[in-house]
Amino acid sequence: MTALYRRLTAAFGPEVPGLLGFLALVILVFSLTAPNFLTGANFGSIAFQLPELGLLTLAMLMPIISGGFNLAIIYTANMAGLTLAFVLNQYGGVDAGIMPFLIGTILALLVGAASGAAMGAVIAYIGAHPILVSLAMMIFLRGLGEFLTKGGDISGFPPWMATLGHGTVAGIPVPLILFLACAVLWHILLTHTRHGFSVRMIGSNIRAAAYSGLHTKRTLVLIYTLSGVMCAIAGILMLSRFNSVRVGHGEALLLVTVLACFLGGVDPFGGFGRVLPVVIALIVLQVLSSGLNLMGANQHLSTAVWGLFLVGVMILRWGAGRISDHRRKGR
Amino acid sequence: MPRDPASAAPPDALRLRGIRKVFGGVTALDAVDFGVGAGEVHCLAGENGSGKSTLIKIVTGVYQPDPGAGIEIFGQTHTQITPTLARKAGIAVIWQDLALFPEMTVAENIAFETLLGNRPRWVSYARLRDTARAALARLDIDLDLEARLGDLPIAQRQIVAIARALVSDARLIFMDEPTASLTQSETDALLAVVRTLSDRGVAVVFVSHRLAEVLEIAARVTVLRDGRLVGVYPTEGMTQSRLSELMTGTSFAQAVTARDAAGPEVLRIENLSRAGEYDDISFTLHAGEVLGLTGLIGAGRTELCHSLFGMTRPDRGRILLNGEGLQLRSNRDAVAQGIAYVSEDRLALGLIQPQSIADNAVLSVLKRISGAGGLLSAQKKEATVSHWLRELAVKIGLPEDPVSTLSGGNQQRVVLAKWLATEPKVLLLDCPTVGVDVGARAGIFRIVRQLADRGLAILLVSDEVPEVFLNADRVLHMAGGRIIHQWDPRQTRLQDMEAAVYA
Fold it and tell me: To probe the interface with B, which of A211, A266, A327 has the most B CB atoms within 10 Å?
């Protein structure tokens, strides 16, 4: 048991065993109290709901580890979704083929990248604070999106696109496969590449990183560009899940992504954070809300429970920190 | 142990006997006696970890000593000290970080404590100013009371902290490394203030490892080592080398290591200028040579280093490396050309403190530790880290520990490891011993000499003249942005060099 614990913490960070324990506890409590909790249907619905929030959380994660923030993730995602929707509507709407879809997807990813690169460039070269820069981008994109859509929905997509949002491959939901692929990519990027290394160092002390010869400005531009691309992927998924695009889709998720990052042990001051614990934190959040839902609780109540959960985890971490400090002193 | 003759003088400010403090099995202080006379300037000397800060924290009531201690403050015997008692008895500490409010005015910072417990809770700014003015007058200092504290230089903030202590009727002031970030003239001004305090009957305990000023200001010095009292000595007749022997328990060979440069010319600087920073700088640096560069803070030393490292661009002049002109657009260009720079600000610029020792050690060689597909190779990283940590004899727990857990000397070795991994030809060392213990300094300079022996060209910048005198082959004197003199340490006396630099 201790050997397994050590290997887990060494490979994925000290947060993982605790979060897995939480997950087991939450599943245990709900399987005893909530009807239909331990059913394939319930876990299926969790698996379909998780990826949107998950992809947006990945988009938030990299800027936070670098000591920054991206408030524009939701509107970047929807702006990318709009791009794809425009292309599809131009080339036949419901009858559109695969080519318009591919072109639209590439353009959507480019729109996401452009939004991120613009923010990254201002942050890196002007030295403006990421919260202000991304706030400006968020408001700009919301206004632009509402102007282009006249505040309404855009729909009318080819029916085969539903596969992306609702289909399964070998029993596994397609959105989940997409999310897991992106999470693995993000994990490799953050832990095994020069870029990921630079992200952490910039997050702890950008001036010392620059003095050491890291190209901090280029890294910052890349961080926000990648974040924007991840938003675009989330936007395309949201389009296919709702079969429509609206600028305000998923607005409520913005701060939930931040919650998931912090639950997953990401340092709010930057420099530290890993993908796996954040993914587990996402699962815990999703299981919590679906369990409460099955018990007949109001959806707003589950949001309240999420908030309490973060406070509870922080108190537990504080306690664990004190215990390990105590042990170290005793030695 | 010498003690003042028992005369009819006022009682001692402080008398501690048999102070012992054990933290979870680690003895921080063991049977330490410590005494300060009223109005005396006393120095508490010792390396990091010798127990100086523990002693201060006991005197101010932050820690309780283990039972059996004798405590006497201004003639009154106490069984224990609490923070409230220490304040009432007139003991104040001025910590290195000063604990002031940068957003508030000078007057508010000096006098805010008079507001505490006020009834009714109104603030009278006129009274605040009067109190602050009176406190500054006692120091013979004139400061703008309405200035925002954060806008003042460190030296003046220190004055504010001292004035604040006077407002709460301090009669015994501990000053923790007060001169660590001051220039020579600021230090002189501070020492003058300390003398004024002493003349007005306020005892001052100076905690410092800058030995020169210790000997200048204090009447007596108490030396601690490894939590034990080494002794109390009059500063009369004490020398710097004797004092550092007492602090470290070892004696250092204080011999000039200069010799003639044998290697070929590596770096040539011709008429380099940058407006407002440095002017018409020319010198050469050879392989295997340690070239000293000294001067007061503000002489342009660090600014020159920044340009040689590609962080800023000179307006005029040329930098030649192995005979070829360099156009450095960034420090990445400099690193690629084989120029490395150890910053004077290790805490903020030299290392990324919260991150691990291993990550810091490979920070500048990410390309070299990349393997297949551009991914970082764990094996190459580990090999690089363990090679350089061994090479520089860095004492660490685990490579995964935060670099902030290391002592100053070991941190500086990690900085050196980081740059040596880039295989530089030129090493710019900007005040490499700031915040490094006396004992560990010798180790750093041994490494510097070994690196020179291996053919590195080293520019050793320091505002402590003895460092360049002892460890450099040639010494350049920089003042007002210009190089005004060059010395051969073998043909110069240290006193003459110091007199010229500190004049």
Answer: A211
- B14: burial class by Cβ within 10 Å (0-12, 13-18, 19+)? buried
Residue A275 Cα to chain centre, angstroms: 10
Whole-number pLDDT of residue B272: 95
Pair B108, B236 in one domain: yes
B23 lies within 8 A of chain A by CB: yes
Domain boundary among B193, B227, B248: B248
ipTM of the complex: 0.88
Give how far B51 is from chain A: nearest CA, Å: 17
- Are B177 and B82 contained in the same domain? yes
Quick: pLDDT tens for B427-477. 999 989 887 777 788 889 999 999 999 999 999 999 888 889 999 999 999
Q: How far is A208 from chain B (nearest CA, A)?
A: 4
The rounded distance, in Å, linking the Cα atoms of A276 and A11 is: 10
Same domain, B237 and B324: no
Q: Please, which pLDDT band fits residue A19 given cuts at 50, 70 and 90?
A: confident
pLDDT at B117: 67
- The Cα A184–Cα A170 span in angstroms is 20
In this structure, the answer to whether residues B223 and B340 fall within a common structural domain is: no
Q: Which residue of B has its CA nearest to A212?
A: B364
Q: Cα(B403)–Cα(B181) distance, rounded to whole angstroms?
A: 22
Q: Which pTM value belongs to this model?
A: 0.80
Considering the domain architecture, whether residues B87 and B209 belong to the same structural domain is answered as yes
From chain A, the residues in CB contact with B363 under 8 A are 201, 209, 212-214
A193 has a chain B CB within 8 A of its CB:
yes
**Beta-carbon-side half-sphere exposure of residue B450 (alpha carbons within 13 Å):** 11
Q: How far is A219 from chain B (nearest CA, A)?
A: 14
The answer on B305 and B235 residing in a single domain is: no
Q: Specify the DSSP element, H or E, that contains B284.
A: strand B278-286
Query: Does residue A331 fall inside a structural domain?
Result: no
- A57 within domain boundaries: yes
For residue A331, what pLDDT is reported?
41
Domain span including residue B98: 14-248
A88, amino acid identity: L
Residue B421 predicted with pLDDT over 60 = yes
Among B308, B366, B398, which would you mutate to test the A interface (most chain A Cβ atoms within 10 Å of its Cβ)?
Answer: B366
The alpha-carbon radius of gyration of chain A (Å, integer) is: 21
- Alpha carbon A230 to chain centroid distance? 8
Question: Which of B332, B350, B376 comes nearest A197 by C-beta?
Answer: B376
From B339, which residue of chain A is nearest by alpha-carbon distance? A213
Residue numbers of the domain that contains A146: 15-324
Q: Which tokens go with B109?
A: 């910072």
Q: Are residues B426 and B481 in the same domain?
A: yes
Q: Is A198 on the interface with B (CB under 8 A)?
A: yes
Assign residue A164 the CATH number of its domain. 1.10.3470
DSSP-derived pairing of the beta strands B172-176 and B91-94: parallel
CATH of the domain at B317: 3.40.50.300
Mean pLDDT, chain B, rounded, equals 87
Match 């800058």 to its residue by tokens: B210
| Cβ atoms of A240 and A70 closer than 8 Å | no
Q: Which residues of A touch B366 (CB under 8 A)?
A: 194, 197-198, 214
Which of B248, B279, B303 corresponds to the end of one domain? B248
